[in-house]
Amino acid sequence: MTTIALPLVTRANAPLARLNPVTKLGAALVVMAALLVTGDLLTPALVLAVELVVIAASGIGLRTFVLRLWLLLVAAAGLGVSTFLLTAATDRYTVAAAMAVRILAISLPGVWVFATTDPTEFADALVQHLKAPARFTFGALAAFRLVPLLGDEWHTLLLARRARGIDAGWSPIRRLRLFGSATFALLVAAIRRGVRLATAMEARGFGRNPDRTVARPQRIGPGNWAFLGGTVLVVAGAIAVSLAVGSWRFLF
């Protein structure tokens, strides 16, 4: 079974690169839970400023950051513009800006978690600390690592068809039909690969023994607890500042 290792976009020696994946996930959930019910501009803006500092401390370069998040930036800007056009409030500039900033502040932690975490370590942490089912977790991990192969198979499939003289030419209808048949062929290949993967995992004993041993133990040390506690303090502090200046409001 061939797997593809997805490269991380962070430096290995970055201060926050080696946090436990469960700690990162917990911090992202804390930020999400707080900002989902916050409707003002100041609270998500303060949280977003801290998030940018965390991303910089995680070793993610500015160019990589922009390339990875350009679609999210466009979506946030689009939501801000649509909110501005559709709202009838007198302070619609503030409402639109709050919407765009809140979307960014909620989304960035999730992107940061997966950009700075090795998928294998993430799966190990879920099984060890959150008691996730090993059969499902490692099956999802294996499937995730095989995703890049779909692009290579698609390219190979198109080249093979072109070598056999199958070409759509300038006809949009024929091009659509060939795209549908190629997609079906890729789906069949993916299903066959999934069956072989499931058979290989069953042969290795996944899911047979509920008391599996751990090959790569991961512990949550004091630094992880400090980071999680710091996240709670940052979110609580941002809300406290907004309450102090009278800008905080409940979204619903």
Distance between the termini: 50 Å
Count the E strands.
Answer: 0
Order of helices and strands: HHHHHHHH
Structural shape: flat
Helix amount: over 70%
Structural class: mainly alpha
- Contiguous helical run count: 8
Give a quick account of the main beta sheet: strands, pairing sense, barrel closure: none
Low-pLDDT sequence parts: 1-7
**How many structural domains?**
2
Residues in β-strands, percent: under 5%
Q: Average pLDDT value?
A: 81
* Rg from alpha-carbon coordinates: 23 Å
Describe this structure in words.
The chain contains eight helices and no strands. It has 252 residues and is mainly alpha-helical. The chain has two domains: 21-117 and 219-245, no CATH class; 133-203, no CATH class. Helix 1 runs antiparallel to helix 4 (92-115). The longest helix has 32 residues, at 172-203. This is Energy-coupling factor transporter transmembrane component T family protein. It is a multi-pass membrane protein. Keywords: Cell membrane, Membrane, Transmembrane, Transmembrane helix.
